[in-house]
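Q: What residues go here?
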């Protein structure tokens, strides 16, 4: 392992089939601790991009669009509370002036498309429901149509929408089990990355309100300060573990990405390591260790 002054090691999970991918790999234990709580290790589920990911010029001001949708034929979501949670998390993160958020409430796909056509956005934050069609093997989010009724929006439709907006780099999906694959289909977060989004964070279960606030606070605070998306997610996991050591909330956030080194904020000079970190890849090409920079890092992991 490299020192904390550097980026630490990175664990890439490239796992097939979906039945195996749905396992909570974050709770693998290496004999000393759970991998998801390791401060020197970032865990991400890697999905090769279907087309090249364009590099971005990291900005010191992140722009978020918050999208809420509570269809009338489903149990109502407290979207007002969800907005308050998010804004409280951003306030606690101390990122005033470095981040702005605009809300689209009970949004339709047309409203989101119109907004993105006029505004440059870095992050989409979705609060709502997901759905799965077993006949079509299709995962979708449930939004509103122009008449205020439920409208299924497939991952393919979202992918096509996002493909035209090069500034959009990350989706944070506060949808129940948004990272959990159905049999024969990927989780919503994975599907969006396959469709062309550089990175997506889903939840493989349901976070409590307090846990969601703590995670968002650390996630967005670290992103603004120039840490990679993977580093910010891992830091958020550690916050959840410290707050509730007897629970497994920390294992629920899952990162899928086609751009493992993605940063949304410009890192301060002091955060730029002199050497690249080690990397371990599981899955894909027979799970070989992959060199990254000047050295390789080996970790032996087994379920506890």
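A:
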């Amino acid at each position: 392992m490299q020192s904390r002054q550097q980026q630490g090691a990175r664990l890439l999970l490239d796992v097939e089939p979906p039945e195996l991918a749905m396992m909570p790999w974050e709770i693998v234990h290496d004999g000393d601790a759970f991998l998801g709580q390791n401060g020197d290790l970032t865990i991400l589920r890697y999905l090769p991009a279907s087309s090249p990911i364009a590099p971005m010029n990291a900005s010191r001001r992140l722009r978020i669009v918050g999208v809420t949708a509570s269809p009338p034929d489903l149990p109502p979501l407290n979207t007002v509370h969800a907005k308050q949670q998010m804004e409280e998390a951003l306030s606690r993160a101390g990122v005033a002036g470095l981040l702005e958020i605009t809300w689209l409430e009970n949004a339709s796909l047309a409203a989101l498309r119109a907004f993105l056509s006029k505004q440059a956005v870095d992050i989409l934050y979705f609060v709502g429901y997901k759905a799965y069609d077993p006949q079509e093997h299709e995962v979708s989010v449930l939004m509103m149509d122009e008449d205020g009724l439920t409208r299924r929006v497939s991952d393919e439709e979202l992918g096509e929408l996002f493909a035209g907006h090069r500034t959009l780099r990350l989706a944070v999906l506060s949808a129940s089990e948004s990272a959990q694959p159905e049999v024969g289909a990927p989780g919503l977060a994975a599907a969006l990355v396959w469709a062309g989004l550089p990175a997506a964070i889903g939840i493989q279960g349901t976070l409590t309100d307090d846990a969601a606030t703590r995670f968002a606070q650390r996630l967005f605070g670290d992103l603004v300060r120039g840490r990679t998306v993977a580093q910010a997610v891992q830091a958020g996991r550690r916050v959840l573990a410290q707050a509730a050591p007897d629970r497994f909330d920390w294992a629920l956030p899952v990162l899928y990405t086609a751009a493992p080194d993605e940063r949304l904020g410009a890192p301060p000079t002091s955060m730029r390591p002199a050497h690249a970190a080690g990397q371990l890849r599981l899955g894909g090409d027979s799970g070989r260790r992959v060199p990254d920079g000047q050295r390789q890092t080996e970790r032996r992991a087994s379920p506890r």
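A: Context that may help when evaluating the design: The first helix runs from residue 18 to 21. Confidence is low (pLDDT under 50) at residues 1-6, 269-277, 285-304.
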